[in-house]
Amino acid sequence: MDKNQIIYWLGENCPSKLNELWELADKNRKENVGDAVHLRGLLEISNYCSRFCGYCGINAGNSSLTRYRIPFDQIISCAAEAESYGYGTVVLQAGEDVCLDCDFIERVVKTIKQQFKLAVTLSLGEREDYEFQIWRKAGADRYLLRFETSNRNLFNKIHPPKPNKAAVDRLEMLQRLRKLGYEIGSGVMIGIPGQSYEDLANDILTFKRLDLDMVGVGPYIPHPKTPLGAKNDELKLSDGNQVEPTELMCYKVIALTRLVCPQANIPSTSALATLNLAQGRENGLSRGANILMPNITPIEYRQYYEIYPSKACIFETAKQCRGCMTNRIKSIGRYVGSGKGSRQKA
Ligand code: SAH
Questions:
Q1: Among the atoms of ligand 1, which is closest to the Cα of residue 188?
Q2: Which of 46, 169, 184, 196 lies at a CB distance of 3.0 to 4.6 Å from 97, suitable for a disulfide?
């Protein structure tokens, strides 16, 4: 599929035409990754962050947020819980927290890999290459770093570099991670103010160029206590090319991503579920996705990992999330995958 075709589909709103896209994506998903839905337990280990990302509610400038960091022993017991629920992977995500130092993460990864059969995905933002190397050696399997948008000017506006440092090229960072032996995951937000249809088509083509193992996309949800959220409307493109962060647009991007990257692992994300709690996850799974990421963050911390407002499922325990996800998967005639759910290459 070329760029013009992608742009055409992103602009298509006729329900019967879109049904063709959903069917094509679903068929492609079935042929390439099958009916299994793999579960990745998402553990949000810290909401401290030293960065000032314009879109993210846990950015350093949000002084009204209660901050937390989950202690070592509790991280390990959450991993034990994930394994007991049959999850194949634990995803450790956090803000760019300087106190999650190299040694701490190394110890966490080593302990999880020694005690459990889980795959470990890290999602800790932009870190040093030597750290990536040490964590990989400790046993980390995957790294998740969204490039957020392939429009470099837009990215620089919403994601200021570290003070006195040059801007990081996340695409290059992902390629270095791949060289170290990580499976790499990335993705974008849909409907960032200033994001055009052409930008979004370029994003999808970038997923393919990077040959990503995992691609996560979700709606941009403005957070009022962020620089971007505070002036959302004035930053939008006024030439008719502004992508809106709608549920429908998310399904189109999931479906097109499946067609362009047939073998990728694609989650139906919590941000999508936030737009449609009743059916968002199922619709994502029926239109190209094959992964769900049940939250395993202990309930006492969950509401504080507020990257965007009104996040889905913040008052449910890990156990409740597990039951809910399993039922949703069964309700659409699919089954929970066993094992780590690594990407199968053709
Ligand atoms: N510090 C890590 C993890 C960030 S949170 C990192 O920078 O990679 C994980 C993802 O949440 C981000 O990559 C971003 O795509 C998404 N996110 C952040 N703020 C959001 C918002 N307001 N709406 C939707 N998604 C958001």
A1: 15
A2: 46
